[in-house]
Amino acid sequence: MTLYETIFARRSVRRYDKTPLDEAELSGIKTYLDGVKQLPGQSARFEIVDSDKLKGGLAPYAILAFADDGDAARVNIGYALQGVDLYLQSAGYGSVWCGMAKPKEPQSDYRILLGFGKTSVPLRKGEEEFKRSKIANVSNEDNDVARAARLAPSAVNLQPWKLTFTDGNVTVRSSVRGIGRALPGRLYLFDLGIILKHVELALEHSGKQPVEFKLDCNGKDSMVQARY
Ligand SMILES: Cc1cc2nc3c(=O)[nH]c(=O)nc-3n(C[C@H](O)[C@H](O)[C@H](O)COP(=O)(O)O)c2cc1C
């Protein structure tokens, strides 16, 4: 299954098998992680740990993300690790973003983690199994890119975004309302990077190569633009 196809089947997995991954499996995931695409000018660092190193981890393993405290650094982590979320699920593992978990040993540049492990929870059968807003509520156009973007995971499933398609551009703006404003850790910035990964994969799938990503980060008024 390709990463694009996995967009229409993935889910947050919170039930895992106890069987540990063997060395070869973990090293395959590490190799993918070492080569994962990041946004221009960004250089987050990632580390795989066992869940016994965490408070509140939801899975047997986790990928910890480290970066500076900026808005753009958070968008970049969302973008990079959503590629990994899709990769893991395409390879038969379960995964789940964990905004509420953290390492037991505090580290000042720790930002968020993605839990993962073996699971027998099946992938979704299709778009109809996702709980998401209607396309008309989140996008000015109904097209294949909007369909894939709409399915992006977000903290508390708030889907804090609006998509605008103009000639050769897709812009995603943060639209953080209600409890989204009160959530700690500026999780809506990871959400923005996560949806950008879905936008990129869907553009590529439709034969449109993204040539530039523009970030304009200002807390809750942040936006990302993909030009193709
Ligand atoms: C940035 C971020 C943080 C999240 N944090 C948590 C969390 O702490 N605990 C949890 O159970 N799920 C967490 N989630 C998972 C979301 O609740 C989930 O993605 C959303 O409800 C949509 O469901 P789906 O991923 O199954 O499509 C998080 C998701 C994102 C994107």
- Helix % is 25-40%
Stretches where pLDDT falls below 50 for ≥5 residues? Answer: none
What would CATH call the homologous superfamily of the largest domain?
A: NADH Oxidase
What hetero molecules are in the model?
A: flavin mononucleotide
Q: Can you identify the CATH class of the largest domain? A: Alpha Beta
Proportion of beta-strand residues: 15-25%
Radius of gyration equals 17 Å
Biggest sheet: strands, sense, closure?
A: 4 strands, antiparallel
**Counted beta strands:** 10
SSE string, helices as H and strands as E = HHEEEHEEEHHEEHEE
Average pLDDT level: 96
Distance between the termini: 25 Å
With helices defined by DSSP (H or I, 4 residues minimum), what is the helix count? Answer: 6
Strand order of the largest sheet: 1-3-6-4
Oligomer: single chain
- Class based on secondary structure composition and strand pairing: alpha+beta
The coarse silhouette is globular
Structure description:
The protein has helices at residues 3-7, 23-34, 71-90, 135-138, 144-150, 187-205; strands spanning 45-50, 54-55, 61-66, 94-98, 102-103, 110-117, 161-166, 169-174, 212-216, 223-227. It has 228 residues and is α+β, with helices and mostly antiparallel strands. The protein folds into two domains: 3-117, 3-Layer(aba) Sandwich (NADH Oxidase), CATH 3.40.109.10; 127-227, 3-Layer(aba) Sandwich (NADH Oxidase). It is globular, with a radius of gyration of 17 Å. The mean pLDDT is 96. The structure holds flavin mononucleotide (FMN). Flavin mononucleotide binds at residues 11-12, 14, 58, 96-100, 130, 153-157, 187, 190-191, 194.
